[in-house]
Automatic annotation (TrEMBL):
The gene is Trim36. It comes from the Eukaryota. GO terms for cellular component: acrosomal vesicle; microtubule. This is TRI36 ligase. GO terms for molecular function: ligase activity; ubiquitin-protein transferase activity; zinc ion binding. The keyword Cytoplasm applies. Its main location: cytoplasm. InterPro entries: B30.2/SPRY, B30.2/SPRY_sf, Bbox_C, ConA-like_dom_sf, COS_domain, E3_ligase_FN3/SPRY, FN3_dom, FN3_sf. Belongs to the TRIM/RBCC family. It is found in: Cytoplasm, Cytoskeleton.
Length: 710
């Protein structure tokens, strides 16, 4: 048998770290005190209401929500879960044992069973721990006597005399169940928490909990597989007994594992001390190098200082000699007192030369040495960056790689990365980025810590290039930096709009999705019926579609993608004054190229057509991007045909009157031309045949965000 004093770890509540008091069984089969469940649930719901703020977690000194629970609160807030909803809502409870969000259902705490078996075991443990403390009779007159038995029906403790008095022979109370002295009184019949007047008599094998017959008939367990309580009792008891017997039979193996673990504990202690010594020696080497560099720098400064002081002091002494009755001037004054011409001439010549030099130095006075020590400034910026990256490197921690296909920059920058291996060994990541600037000599990386494998950045400048890199961390161990990936931001702020389903929209040929962000051209029976009358030539109609928002000023950028199977798509901008002309121009493409008597295939007709259109458009189709035939364009038609980028962008600069067409993947300008921006400018799209266009959805810019410029 297992000693009662050896199981105290199983009797401790994971929330309050004390012995269980009225424990409840959670759906995850873990136990928590009834009071702790209420406190955790209130703190958790308050944290959800306050957005997971720390101030909302101060109501209970016994319960503290862990950092992982706070992360789950943030995740639930991001999913948009709302309180006070009209629809039935379930109660989420963060289990302190398995750290999972447990759904308690609509009844919440009231739907949980009380674990009476665990209460009994806790009470036995308490009695064994306080065997010297007696349980007194509840009915004796002062002073009370020590109780000898407790009545489970009366929920009270009695001495022998009081028990006979309150349970007289021949009455109904004489049939009450009594046990030894205890303070743990539990009901004789376990009632259903959902149907309070019904006792549980079945066991749900799906939910693994006792249920009543009403739960099976029309409750939440109607379609579940259930069994009788006696069968479940017998089956579970046999399984538990077998498992306990197996563990007891493996006692020698358990002891061997304990011995091995104790050796591992000692080995871990020794290895940690050795690692500390090696790390300390590494830093001592750095300290020694720094001290040597420091001493050399200080000696150089001291030597330079002494030389400069000597020069300045010599210059001070020379100027002091120019004062009256002092130094050179005093000596000259004494020479002037000489009356013998021969003696005076003998010394005056040399003295006059010295006086002239002193006069010249006085006129062009300049300090003999500099007072600043700018040449002795130590530049440690690079060394600080290197020391900032100083960490434990492990070959076992894989270097992450930035996924350029999943990463993109539009209204925000979404940077995604992944580990080369199948499993992710890193606990967290650090993403660093900086703006590429040729003028700056030193690079300053901006750093952000990430728990997942992607990060959205919103503080980037327009029309700029940025370098990104990432490294993984597991505790104090870090991986190497990933390869730097350079990405370009849009040339202007992102402009958000939707396809207009009213102005000129042809619902017979075009089909919009529900969000009006995608349009598809259907070349169906109307086109076939229209071409049935044609015998020669080819007259086809472009179906136009504009954006629902116009631009009056400023510089704006929007992006979109064209499906690879698209036959013909034209994109560009149109002024509001020419929209009506655009939709009334029915036969937009009239090409004699395929007429039997055309006589040529030059394609020059397309150029004259482009110049006569009411809007500025470029042509896309057959997985190609066609640069319009302009005087500035290449003369060779083949050089005007480019592969179709996966994502295209248009940049409209109303102030300069120019529009540019970009490869939105690398933000490279493919074609730019002048445009008349005298009125409101609208994005315009034209489709013919089988084609589809999808607008790139902005990450932050919502519809109508640029209301000042629109």
């Amino acid at each position: 048998k297992v000693a009662i004093k050896g199981i105290e770890r199983e009797l401790i509540c994971p929330a309050c770290k004390e012995l269980f008091t009225h424990p409840l069984i959670l759906p995850c089969q873990h136990n928590v005190c009834h009071k702790c469940v209420k406190e955790i649930l209130f703190a958790f719901e308050d944290s959800l209401a306050d957005g997971g703020s720390e101030s909302s977690n101060q109501s209970s000194p016994r319960i503290r929500i862990s950092a992982s629970s706070m992360d789950r609160i943030d995740r639930i807030n991001r999913t948009g879960r709302k309180r006070n909803s009209l629809t039935p809502r379930s109660t989420l409870f963060p289990c302190p044992s398995c750290q999972r969000d447990i759904d308690l259902g609509e009844r919440g705490i009231n739907g949980l069973f009380r674990n009476f078996t665990l209460e009994t075991i806790v009470e036995r443990y308490r009695q064994a721990a306080r065997a010297a403390i007696a349980i007194m009779c509840d009915f004796c007159k002062p002073p009370p006597q020590e109780s000898t038995k407790s009545c489970m029906d009366c929920s009270a403790s009695y001495c022998n005399e009081c028990f006979k008095m309150h349970h007289p022979w021949g009455t109904a109370k004489a049939q009450h169940e009594y046990v030894g002295p205890t303070t743990n009184f539990r009901p004789k019949i376990l009632m259903c928490p959902e149907h309070e007047m019904e006792r549980v008599n079945m066991y749900c094998e799906i939910c693994r909990r006792p249920v009543c017959h009403l739960c099976k008939l029309g409750g939440g367990h109607a379609n579940h597989r259930v069994t009788t309580m006696s069968t479940a009792y017998k089956t579970l008891k046999e399984k538990l007994s077998k498992d306990i017997e197996y563990l007891i039979s493996k006692e020698s193996q358990v002891k061997a594992h304990i011995t091995q673990l104790e050796l591992l504990l000692k080995e871990t202690e020794c290895n940690s001390e050795r690692a500390k010594q090696e790390a300390s020696q590494s830093f001592e080497k750095l300290y020694y190098v720094l001290e040597e560099k420091k001493s050399a720098a200080l000696r150089a400064i001291e030597t330079s200082k002494n030389i400069r002081l000597e020069k300045l002091q010599s210059q001070v002494e020379e100027h002091q000699g120019l004062l009256e009755n002092n130094g050179l001037v005093g000596y000259a004054q004494e020479v002037l007192k000489e009356t013998d011409p021969s003696c005076f001439v003998q010394i005056a010549k040399q003295l006059h030369v010295r006086i002239q030099k002193a006069t010249e130095s006085l006129r062009s006075f300049r300090p003999a040495a500099e007072t600043t020590f700018e040449d002795f400034v130590v530049d440690t910026a690079k060394q600080e960056d290197v020391l900032g990256d100083l960490s434990f490197h492990s070959n076992g921690l894989e270097t992450p790689e930035i996924n350029e296909e999943q990463s993109r920059i539009y209204s925000k920058a979404l940077i995604s990365w992944e580990s080369p291996g199948k499993t992710d060994s890193a606990d967290s990541y650090v993403l660093e980025y900086h703006k590429l600037n040729k003028e700056e000599e030193s690079v300053t990386w901006q750093k952000t810590e990430v728990c997942g494998k992607s990060k959205v950045l919103s503080d980037l400048d327009d029309d700029s290039s940025y370098a990104f890199r990432v490294r993984g961390y597991k505790g104090s161990i870090c991986s190497l930096w990933s390869r730097e990936v350079i990405m370009h931001t849009p040339p202007a702020p992102v402009f958000s709009f939707l396809f207009d389903d009213k102005c000129g929209y042809n619902n017979e040929h075009l089909q919009l999705n529900s969000r009006r962000t995608s349009v598809e051209s259907r070349a169906g029976f109307p086109l076939l019926l229209g071409s049935e009358r044609l015998q020669v030539g080819c007259y086809t109609t472009l179906d136009y579609l504009i954006g629902d928002t116009g631009i009056a000023k400023g510089k704006h950028f929007w992006a979109f993608s064209v499906e690879a199977y698209s036959y013909l798509v034209k994109v560009g901008v149109v002024p509001s004054s020419k929209i009506q002309k655009l939709f009334h121009n029915t036969h937009d493409v009239t090409s004699p190229r395929y007429e039997q008597d055309s006589g040529h295939d030059s394609g020059s007709e397309d150029a004259t057509f482009d110049s006569s259109q009411p809007c500025t458009l470029v042509t896309i189709g057959m997985k190609k991007f066609f640069i319009p035939a302009t005087p500035a364009a290449p003369k060779d038609p083949a050089s005007r045909i480019l592969p179709l980028p996966s994502c295209l962008g248009i940049c409209l600069d109303c102030d300069r009157g120019r529009v540019g067409f970009y490869d939105a993947g690398c933000m490279k300008c493919l074609y730019e031309c002048e445009v008349d921006c005298s009125g409101l400018m609208y994005p315009v799209f034209a489709l013919m045949g089988g084609a589809a266009v999808h607008l790139e959805e902005a990450d932050t810019a919502k519809y109508g965000e640029y209301h000042n410029d629109i």
